[in-house]
Design a protein that fits this description.
seven-stranded mixed beta sheet, alpha/beta, six-stranded antiparallel beta sheet
């Protein structure tokens, strides 16, 4: 991974996106459906792209919105659709386009009061709250966000009545129908002007903020945080939860400081990420430089990405915690401080998350549920309480309420952030210190993830990797114990491959949202051993992309 000389530095104006040009491109550029890169394509987190690349334009959103209306009709989903946006520049235009179609199709739509931004977990929470106890008339939702992607990007994802990210069978249906509509020049798309859509009897204002914030005491021990007077700093990174934190602090009497309330679609207040791009990634030490600099002023400092479904935790003891470190500490804490959770509630993790989680789960005598990348694989377990916690290495997690019932079935960055303060209030130790205790008991893993460009054909090749393409018997000097192409927890395809030895492993898979592939690796024998694992993994990937057998 080649580090940019700009990484971690304040944004140079020369790299700022031209917002007027971006929004103009959204309305004026027309995608060519004969070109794969200009079609609707749902990855692990919905359809993403940029108007500047003709991959996220008005035509895409009109087609996707009509496809969702047709999906709802065919599956008899006739309750309200909860609709939310983040602070990316393309989100407001996409909201307008989507609402024009939804209203024309007679869909009951819930948009935010006061045109407020709406975090992803808040939409999931609203869907589940509405559907609780119902036998029909179910609600679903749409979140318009590209998550922590650069400012030039837009994103659009659908959450069905279970409140979580849609499964592949759903997204494939919507994707295919949307692309059919694109091919016909949007023939079959119903649409009315925005002004009429906003006045439609089916368009309603909903107080997302109050509904979510007033319920937080049922998932986090707010009394403990308030009683211990934990000093908590929050940086919303200019995202959708920017106006949620102050009301939250006031309602629960928390000693909470919001260090940055700026909303700017260029995100010029950020520090530059590892590759020279602006990216609102709370797990990146380069993007999080401003908050890391405050670590000694507060007991805990936290941040969330643009749609607030990911968390970043900064402590006095450790600075910015790596996502795997915090997930491990959070799991260890939660399953010892939630007496009303089901005794058989399991720990959910993705195949590319740390094996430290495996060891913690074994110590807690909890079943491990290991699934492919994508939070959608956790939805049913969170919904029925068979999963107490679900997390992924990219700093996304959610967990059930204090009483063991469902909170959200999508990632929630706000709740894990608040949990860091609860942990310190209850244990007198910050999450970094808790993780340090775990390493003394289980060993200290070294973990890394590398990324490299990959075109569509190369991504398909990586996705179809098989154990037969790995003739190796050893991994960095250790006998290989397993070569996996399906996840142990649910037997679903990994979309790549994972090779496991006693004290190390690697996984290789194409990205579902970007033209890159990723290699994840971990070693409990230190950085030199990790480097050997990565080198051997890279040689396998190189041979695959070159179409040659591995030695």
């Amino acid at each position: 991974m080649l580090l940019s000389p700009l990484a971690g530095k304040p944004v140079n104006p020369s790299i700022l996106v031209d917002i007027p040009r971006l929004v103009t491109a959204y309305y004026t550029q027309v995608p060519d459906p004969s070109m794969p890169q200009q079609r609707v394509a749902f990855g692990t987190s919905g359809h993403r792209g940029s108007a500047l690349d003709v991959s996220f334009n008005e035509a895409h959103i009109l087609a996707i919105s009509q496809a969702i209306c047709l999906y709802r009709e065919s599956h008899k989903i006739d309750g309200p659709l909860f609709l939310g946006i983040d602070t990316h520049a393309l989100s407001i235009p996409a909201l307008a386009s989507s609402l024009e179609v939804l209203a024309a199709n007679g869909v009951e739509v819930m948009i935010a009061a006061n045109d407020e931004y709406t975090p992803t977990p808040v939409i999931s929470h609203a869907i589940l709250g509405y559907n609780s106890g119902r036998k029909d008339g179910f609600a679903d939702g749409v979140v318009i966000t590209p998550s922590h992607n650069p400012p030039r990007d837009g994103g659009f994802k659908y959450n069905p009545p279970n409140g979580g990210p849609a499964e592949p069978v759903v997204t494939r249906w919507i994707e295919a129908k949307a692309n059919e509509l694109l091919k016909t020049g949007l023939k079959g798309v119903k649409r009315i002007p925005l002004e009429k859509a906003l006045r439609a009897a089916t368009t309603h204002r909903y107080d997302y903020l109050t509904a979510y914030v007033s319920d937080l005491g049922k998932v986090i021990d707010m009394d403990a945080i308030r009683g211990a007077r934990i000093s908590l700093a929050v940086d919303p990174l200019g995202g959708a939860g920017v106006h949620y934190w102050r009301p939250l602090a006031e309602r629960y009497g928390l000693n909470l400081t919001v260090v940055n309330e700026t909303v700017d679609p260029t995100f010029r207040f950020m520090t530059v990420d590892w590759d020279g791009q602006i990216r609102m990634d709370p797990s990146s030490p380069y993007a999080m430089q401003s908050l890391i600099g405050l670590k000694d002023r507060f007991d805990v400092a936290v941040a969330c990405d643009t749609d607030h479904d990911r968390h970043g935790i900064v402590t006095k003891s450790s600075g910015l915690l790596a996502p795997n470190h915090y997930l491990s500490a959070a799991i260890f804490y939660l399953f010892r401080h939630r007496p009303d959770w089901r005794e058989d509630a399991a720990v959910g993790k993705t195949v590319v998350s740390s094996q430290m989680i495996d060891r913690v789960a074994a110590r807690l005598k909890r079943r491990l549920y290991e699934v492919p990348v994508g939070f959608k694989w956790f939805v049913s377990g969170l919904l029925d309480g068979s999963l107490g916690f679900a997390g992924e290495e990219s700093a996304g997690a959610s967990f059930v309420r204090l009483d063991g019932t469902v909170w959200t079935t999508d990632k929630d960055g706000i709740v894990p952030a608040l949990l860091a303060a609860e942990m310190m209030a209850q244990m007198g130790r910050d999450p970094g210190e808790v993780y340090g205790d775990l390493t003394r008991e289980f060993g200290e893993p070294a973990y890394d993830r590398v990324e490299a460009p990959a075109n569509a054909e190369q991504k398909r090749m990586l996705e179809k990797l098989s154990p037969q393409q790995i003739p190796l018997k050893d991994l960095a000097g250790e006998r290989i114990q397993a070569i996996l192409t399906r996840a142990p927890g649910n037997d679903a395809p990994i979309g790549g491959l994972k090779v496991v030895a006693k004290s190390g492993w690697f996984a290789a898979r194409p990205s579902g949202t970007e033209d890159i592939y990723k290699i994840y690796a971990e070693s409990f024998q230190g950085t030199d051993h990790l480097r050997r694992i990565l080198e051997e993994a890279q040689s396998i990937v190189n041979a695959t992309l070159a179409g040659t057998p591995t030695d």
